[in-house]
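Aim 2 progress update. The chain analyzed this quarter is reproduced below.
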Amino acid sequence: MKKLYEGKAKEVFETEVENEYIIRYKDTATAGNGEKKAEIDGKGELNLKITTIIFEMLQKAGIKTHYIETLNAHDMKVKKVEILPLEVIVRNISAGSFAKRYGVEEGIVFENPTFELSYKNDELGDPLMCEDHAIALKLITKDEYDYIRKETLKINELLKEFFIKINLKLVDFKIEFGKDSNGNILLADEISPDTCRLWDKDTNAKLDKDIFRRDLGSLTEGYEEVLKRMQK
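Predicted structure tokens:
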């Protein structure tokens, strides 16, 4: 297979089938836009299993995604999409960069979720971007923005309901969208503890990439706990 792209945590390969790609999940863990980096055995396999369960759940609930099927321990078959250069972030509880940016404590539960966009550009540090700027730069149209916001908030409700059933609080998450060959906007990339903050409902123990960011213990043990609860 011809490699088309390699990012921090995944590789993308061309297939013999038109409009289908293979995404390979790597064992690389990064934080701080790649400033902190490590190889952690089993991380890619755990993220793939978790993303598979979540994408299948979301598709059953009517969310359009690029997911087709999981092929093996590291590879997922997906629909070819052109990723929009935007990271879409939802926050239900204050944590991470939000708490630091505004000088507030972590753990404040918001009455309503916040919806954020950031410009997907490592060199610029993925800066926050408002709706008007994204439209002015022709990254998306107004109709596309409205669709993405509505779909993202629906995804948030589905994920919150899913996680609370396994005693996890969905603090925040980052997702990406892409356009297929027909111009349809699809949920893409992944949804895993790499891209979500997940706290135990009773203890607030962190079971996400903050374990790696903050040197809180074994990343794989945290991800294995999330997967174990999901598989039950």
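The chain is about 30% helix and 35% strand. The mean pLDDT is 96. These observations will guide the mutagenesis experiments scheduled for the next reporting period.
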